[in-house]
Each structure stands twice: as structure tokens, then as C-alpha cells.
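Onboarding guide, step 5: your first structure request.
Type a short instruction followed by the sequence, for example:

Predict the 3D structure of this protein.
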Amino acid sequence: MLRNRLDGLVSLHGIWVTIMTTAGFYVYTMGTLATEWIRLAPGFNRNLYFLAVFIGMLLAARVYLGWIDRLARLGWMDSLYVTAQMVARLALVLFGTAFVIKDVAVSRMFLGVFLILASAGMWLSNRYLPRVIAKFVFKSHSIPTIIVGSPAETPGFEGWLAEQAKLGVDVLGCVTTRREYSPRGVRLLGYVEDIENVLANFPASQIVLPLFYLDAADTKHVMAVARDAGCRVRLVENFDEGVKRPFTVDRSDSGLSVISDDNEPLENPVNRGIKRVFDVAVALPVVLFVLPPLTLLVALMQKIQSPGPVFFRQLRYGEGRRTFLIFKFRTMHLAAQNAEQEKVQASRGDSRVFAFGRFLRKASLDEMPQFLNVLFGEMSVAGPRPHLVQHDDEFARLVADYRMRHFVKPGITGWAQCNGYRGEITHVGLLLKRAQHDIAYVRSWTPILDILIVLRTARQVLFPPKSAY
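The system replies with C-alpha cells like these:
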């Protein structure tokens, strides 16, 4: 997850510097033409050089790929070194363009002054901008973290925590063994044997566990409890050699390595932005043009078959297990919608569902108001389907890693649903399959996957599967 955030930070910074430099060249060119402080020949092809600057910056931004782990904390010398590499690539493209087309109209002084100005802008951006971007992007998406053990005991650990704070890691405190009572510089939240109570009292989304701190049995216990509570687990160790396992390894200047067995593309802020744009692009037309006439039709049929409110709202868990009210078209008689009845899953031929409500459920049209939840930012078009709060807690006790579904926003439709795992959950095996598909979505999200889910769901609306009722 932290690697995904670093990748996103590098992408955002590269995009900004590319746009800034390309736009700067345009302003510089127009200013030069207006003031004539450098006389440009009539045959100067400014559009060609504008394109050359853009291509040159795309090549120059690739320098950042070699500095992923350190981009948010570059010193002035490192910033100068990175800038020099970038300017060299940009200059190569600019002067290479002039050489290839044998351009005698362009002024070498004009290009040289631009490269000097671009160097200053790049250095300032490389020195300060990544920290500003990280603070802005991750401030509202922090990662509440609990440390197992005292950070002071592990060489390099305190330095690593300070580095990760830039990525939104918020240390709540630590849990230790009974022999330690006052860990230096970190709040003591409790003890390892009380890890369940600690997580209940201090909701965290990440636990950082030094491999050498506990014995094997306690380590497995802490990891199991963390997963059941919906916490990511980070295993920390100092490695002299590479880890030949399918783990993500993040290395720091202090020599500390942090490994994790998960991949979360949606922790990359660029990916989150792409997904949000997709959500709004799909949801807004539905809310403006489809939902109003559909709501009138539903209201009319409800008035005939089961008078009462058009919409039904219910508490569900969202991203990070934050609760929200989900919107649906009411499909059940009002008498059936009391606190106890709401806990019971709808089943085939359920007497609580009125006739038109049964059609809405079969065609998945009862979910249409959830596009409002999408616009409110509580849900996504595609993602793990949110279950009842009571069911969610029960399911988490039955399936390991179940709460990993809450690492992303819930969806109107999901990878599990478009693969046939929808409707009533009648046995643990069905729940397990649904959870496996949801977790696979969390770990392997791509924009193409969201589009595929929407297309498959559209087909199911037109041709409902047997599991729909």
C-alpha cells in the first residue's frame, strides 16, 4: 500500500513538472515575441518546439522512477542532481530537434535562456513540491497505525516512521509485552495479550510488527487478530539480502526494510482520481436523466401495490468501516421493515416483497438510487457490495481476511456479483467465494476492470441470472 502511495506521488509530481515546464515554454515564447528582447527569425516554428519540450519533459520525468523511495525528502544536492539529469534530457531533445530539421531560424540563445529558467523551476519543484503534494493528498486519507513493540528498540525504526508520516501514516501508539512499561516517545496503548481490546478501543487500519519482537505463536496470533479487525499488517526486518518471495519491499535510507504481502492499486492517488472521474462520469447522467423518471414510475407502482415512502435507507459499512446510509428503492411492505425483519436476508419468494418490488430486485433496479451515494463520495460504481452492519460483523467471524473488503469504497456492483455470486448467502462456501472475488478486486484494480464489471452488470440487468430475485 505504501509503495502504491509512493508511485502515485511520483506520478503526480511528474505530471505537474511536465505541465509547468511546457506551459512555461509557451509563456516564455509569447513573451519573447511580444518584447523582441531576443529577435526570432520569421521562419521560427514555435509549435514544433512546443511539442519538443513536451516530449522532452516526458523523457525527463522518467528520472523520478529512480528516486521513488526518496522523492518526498530530497535534499538540495539530490534535487540539483535530479534536475541536472532532467535538463540534460530536455536539452538533448530540443537541440536534437534543431539539428534534425536543420533549423537556422531558431536562436541558440533563446533555447539556452529557456533551459536556465526551466532548471530553476525544476530544482524548486523537486526540492519542495513532493512534500506539499504528499501533505495535500494524504492529509484526508491518513493511515491510523499501531506499532507492536517499542520503536526505539529497532535500529532505524524511528527514522522510518518519520519518513512514512509524509505518506499519511499516523501512529496512534504501541502495544508491548508486559516487561515494558514506558516505551520512549510513543503512547502505550496496551499489551500484546490484549491486542483484541486495543484494536476495539483504538481503531487502526495498519499494524507494524517487527518479525523478531515476538515468538512465532504470538506473531501469528497478532497477525490473525489484525486481519480479523480489518488491519493491514506490515512486517519489519533489516535484510542484507533480497527477499525471494512475492512481497512488496520498501527500503529506507536507514537500512530498514518493510515487507507486505498485499498490493493496493487504489492507494495510488492517481488511480483514486481516475476511479473518481469514472464514478462521476457514470453516476451524473444516471442521476440527472434516468433516476427522475424511474423514481416517478416506482412511486406510482408503490402507491398502487404498497403505499409508503419511495426510498429505503439503511446503515452500511463503507471504506475504512465508516458507516453511511445507503439509498434503495423500497421493495418490501412497510410492515416488514422493522428492526428485526431488516436483519433477515431476502430470499426467493419472500412474502415481505411486493410484486413490483420483486421485479425491481430481479432487474437490480432497486439499487439505482445508490448513484446518489456515488456522487456523495460514499460509494463507487464498482466495488465490493456493502452488507448489513449486523451481517458484516457475523461474516467477518466466518471468513479470514473478510474485512479487507473495506480497504476500498463499496460499489453498486462488484467483481463477485458479475461473476454470479449475488443474492442470498446460504452457506459459508458462497460467502468465501464472494469475499475472495472482492479481495481480488482490491488487490488487482485497474480502470479496465471497472469497465468490465459495468458491462457485465449491464448484461445481467437485461438478462437476469438465476440467482436474481
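Each response can be followed by summary notes, for example: The chain has three domains: 2-138, 143-263, 269-462.
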